[in-house]
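Field reference: sequence -> structure
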Amino acid sequence: MELQQYKFCHAGSRMNFAVFSDDPCHISYVKSVPIPIGYTKVELYEIEPGARTRWIVVKQVDGYKNTLKVFLRQNERFLENSMDQLSRETKKQIMQRFPTLAAQTKALMADKALGKRFGQMVKKIGKEIKKGVRRDREKKEEIALVAVDTRKTEPPFSPQRLSLI
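Structure field:
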């Protein structure tokens, strides 16, 4: 998405944003939106890049969740990118200019990697459980077939049984 399509929210310390860039940007108020829960209003803002701005990083805080959005200039537009997609040079500029952001980025990327690994583990365990359930079903079917195949199926009043009485 483009930077112009984004509106950034501010509602006190629990929902806010911070802007980091290589050249000053203009942050302008768009509107205030009342929230029916409680008596809070969320203020919406947009970011207008400076004439010489090449990159913008926006740190968004929503409760305990922190996210980073990175926008790079491509001609006159600012397109969203992930930190993984940035060139080494751009990452280096961001990290040198904003060392605290660098630490937060590393923490977020570590959380992302940990979350990905955790998700993979859960998926693997789920697959193993499904395989185990399938194996159990197959064994039950085999046991049931064996029970049906080995059982004598004589009617209760067969001619042989009547002759014995």
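Note: The chain has three helices and seven strands.
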